[in-house]
Amino acid sequence: MPFKTIVAIIQSAEDTERVLDCAIPLAARFEGHLIGVHAEALPVAYASTIGFPDTEFLQATASMNKERAKKLEGLFRGRVEAAGQSFEWRGLESFSGDSALSGISSARCADLVIAAQRNPEADSDTSTDIDTLLYDAGRPVLVVPHAGPSLSTYNRVLIAWNGSREAARAAFDALPFIVEAEEAEILVIDQPDDSDAEGGGAEIAAALARHGATVAVSMEDSDGRSVDDVIQDRVAATGSDLLVMGAYSHSWLRELLFGGITRTVLQSMPVATFMSR
After folding, report:
1. Residues near 23 by Cβ (< 8 Å), separated by ≥ 6?
2. What's this model's pTM, rounded to 2 decimal places?
3. How many angstroms separate the CA atoms of 178 and 104, rounded?
4. Residue 27 half-sphere exposure, CB side, CA atoms within 13 Å?
């Protein structure tokens, strides 16, 4: 299924450039509609020295927020209009000012959501809560890395596979990318000797191949490494430019079993990552 409705989460000027480098050509390729979502925080009233709300502070904060939102909307509109792309802009306000949280309702009506990976060197207020977006929106999210090229076409796709519901959802949600790729690889880590075909990767590889994808299966032993280290090593070894994987829940049991892989990917994966839950 092509991505006809794409939501771009815009939190900062840096986000705007990196997200749109991916979103605009992607929307054009699938003849889709691009929705930009940005949220500003509602000003919080602080008491003045005489105990009354500091109205000057409220006005200054509201004015600053308005100017920032106007600037980001201008950046978005300028690039999208220049590309001749169907689009709309949704400027929102919320107590958190987090565009990912505020954009959940928009994301639920989209085929794909695109957001920028957290930049560890950026201010905390320029980062979005992608974790909550993944778990609450119910739609696939393409996370654009904070460094390196921002791509919209992927030649080599690595699919992290463990036979789970989340992994299956991600693999089929990412079909448009997988079918387009020159090659897709199913990566299975620490496969048990008695693993069934579902967990072993052969059956999902055959299912994707029926859609026209060029698919191979590889097996890796962790040998004491964390799951996320194994995946990152395989991304580097294969030259993959897109990782596809399931987003696992926050429960302590899942964190124990999968090593917090979802959080690690959101923070440090060097290539674009497509995640579903």
Report:
1. 6, 8, 34, 114, 152
2. 0.88
3. 26
4. 28
> In this structure, are residues 222 and 189 in contact, taking their beta carbons and an 8 Å threshold?
yes
Q: Report which of 187, 130, 124 is spatially closest to residue 7, judged by C-alpha positions.
A: 130
Q: Are 89 and 73 in contact (CB under 8 A)?
A: yes
Nearest one of 122, 145, 143 to 270, comparing CA atoms: 145
Strand order of the sheet with strand 141-144? 87-94, 33-41, 5-9, 112-116, 141-144, 272-276, 242-246, 156-161, 183-189, 215-220
Place of tokens 């463990």: 162
- Ordered per-residue pLDDT tens for the chain, 277 residues: 789 999 999 999 888 899 999 999 999 999 999 999 999 987 665 555 555 555 666 677 778 888 999 999 999 999 999 999 999 999 988 878 889 999 999 999 999 999 998 876 666 555 678 888 888 899 999 999 988 778 889 999 999 999 989 999 999 999 999 999 999 999 999 886 655 545 579 999 999 999 999 999 999 998 888 888 899 999 999 999 999 999 875 554 445 444 456 666 677 788 999 999 8
CATH number of 156-276: 3.40.50.620
Q: Name the residue among 145, 166, 175 with its Cα closest to residue 235.
A: 145
User: Which whole-number Å values give the CA distances from 157 to 45, 64, 182, 221, in the listed order?
Assistant: 49, 42, 8, 20
Domain ranges of the chain: 5-144, 156-276
What amino acid is encoded at 26 in this protein? L
Annotation: CATH topology of 5-144: Rossmann fold (3.40.50)
- Segment holding 149, helix H or strand E: none
Nearest by Cα to 35 from 95, 112, 101, 94: 112
